[in-house]
Amino acid sequence: MINAADIITSGTSILFVTLDSLRYDVARSAYDEGMTPHLAALLPEGGWQRRQTPGTFTLPAHMAFFSGFLPKLPQPKQPPRLWECRPPAFKTVPPETFLFDAPSLLAGLGQHGYRTVCVGGVTYFSRETPLGSVLPAMFDEDHWRPEFCSPEMDSTRHQVDQALDLADRHRGRPLLLFVNVSATHVPHGHYLGQQDDTTASQRAALAYADEHLGRLITTLTATDRWLVIMCADHGDAYGDDGYHGRGIAHPVVMNVPYAATVLQGRR
């Protein structure tokens, strides 16, 4: 069990990675088949948890995440939440939960001296449109370039290079470093040299991103303690029961991979 209240009040930095559109079954099969060895070495024992997202596409899922609502286990009894906005007086919050008295997690972390930094991926983080400005505007600092987006085959490398530069630049203060990985978002058929997007090409996209995400995490945690949270915001349908895309409450959209762990400095 992670005591997020203790971790955050002690000033431990946080890496929050969302693997955009990544289905749970794709993440699990890639893990089981040894296609993501770098992540497998860093995930908690047993690998990815199956959880259910609070939103069926990028915008509502991330709004929920940044308001304190991470994906939940598909069962009646839930573990304590990592973080939560101060609730009404009648509700009791477990002591392990980081309680923030602010309208968002990002603002709440700011009250504890954190710098919140976003490395965007999909266009909801691009500021190219008014709607694409909503999520990045919640951060102290946000970064997006076209090469961070899914049509770029080497997008994760560019994103990780940017994230590591930011972590180095802000060394010495608590950081919430958020990375929205776009490689697993359509289009990803190019990872198999095909036009169509499928579960196989999403698996290939995740296998591509694995090396760079491993590099990000191992570099950050080489000397310092980090709380690392990785999950998908939602899944994607590729003809399942006739459905395509997201924004629908189909199980392949609702079920997402999730992992949270505390990694200590290892030097």
Description:
It is a single chain. The model has no long low-confidence stretch (mean pLDDT 97). Helix 2 crosses helix 7 (199-220) and helix 6 (155-169) packs parallel to helix 7 (199-220). The strands form three sheets. A seven-stranded mixed sheet has the order 2-11-8-1-7-5-6. The chain is of the alpha/beta class. It is globular and about 50 Å long. The protein is built from eight helices and eleven strands. It has a single domain, classed as Alkaline Phosphatase, subunit A (3-Layer(aba) Sandwich), CATH 3.40.720.10. It has helices at 4-9, 24-32, 37-40, 58-66, 105-110, 155-169, 199-220, 251-254; strands at 13-19, 49-52, 83-85, 98-100, 115-119, 141-143, 175-181, 226-231, 237-240, 243-245, 255-263.
Topology diagram in text:
Blueprint: H1 4-9, E1 13-19, H2 24-32, H3 37-40, E2 49-52, H4 58-66, E3 83-85, E4 98-100, H5 105-110, E5 115-119, E6 141-143, H6 155-169, E7 175-181, H7 199-220, E8 226-231, E9 237-240, E10 243-245, H8 251-254, E11 255-263
Parallel strand pairs: 1-7, 1-8, 3-4, 5-6, 5-7
Antiparallel strand pairs: 2-11, 8-11, 9-10
Helix pairs in contact: 2-7, 6-7
